[in-house]
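=== Structure Prediction Worksheet ===
Name of assembly: unnamed complex
Input type: mixed (protein and possibly other molecules)
Chain count: two
Listed entries:
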Amino acid sequence: MSSAAAKKTRPKYLSLTALLFEIRLPLPGWVSILHRASGALLFLAGVWVLFILDRSLASQDGFELAKHYLKLPLVKLSLLVLVWAYCHHFCAGIRYLFLDLDKGVDLKTARLTGGVVIAAGLALTAYFGAMLW
Amino acid sequence: MSRVVVGAHYGLRDWLAQRITAAIMAVYSVIVAVVLLFGQPISYPVWRDLFAQGWMRVATLLFAASLAWHAWVGVRDILMDYVKHDGLRLASQVVVLLVIAGYVGWTIEILWR
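=== Predicted Assembly ===
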């Protein structure tokens, strides 16, 4: 790694305004970073999901309590975010499985499926959200 | 270009494991979604009986085990990317492993209480 190419100083172009307004992440890049963010969120939310599952299965009272708890606006909103995280992670993951098999790796298809994944994640979230409430 | 192969090849094993566990969890997710959406409306007896069935307990345990391995590979990748300090990264990884072990233990407790 000590080649001349690796040591060549390159201009940096990473001001905050550049990051926010000038450097555009391509669609498959959004799928990727959202896949990572949703995965991290799902890992962290595990304790919350297990807590609700635990209470809801413990007894009739626990079930009613969990049901009541899940109706609180802030809880509903959090759950919806979590549902989105799951749906996006699911759809993006399936896309990656196909990419691993060398399917859809050309730029045009990758951009198309990237858009499809983001849209499908949001559509599934809306569907489950509507079914749940 | 010659490459030096190092380590115990855990990279390939975990890469593959992450994909196989993903497939297992995808199947479970679809089954549960179908049960929730097209089964009986969820009341406590329906909910309790669903998780009292042997296949559901085993499937959920398989899901939890898959999730544990899958999440470990994923979170470890994130930590390797962003936490540059060796000691801090190692400590974070130990915490993550403990949390995952806790999740699995709690899941077993919920399923077979």
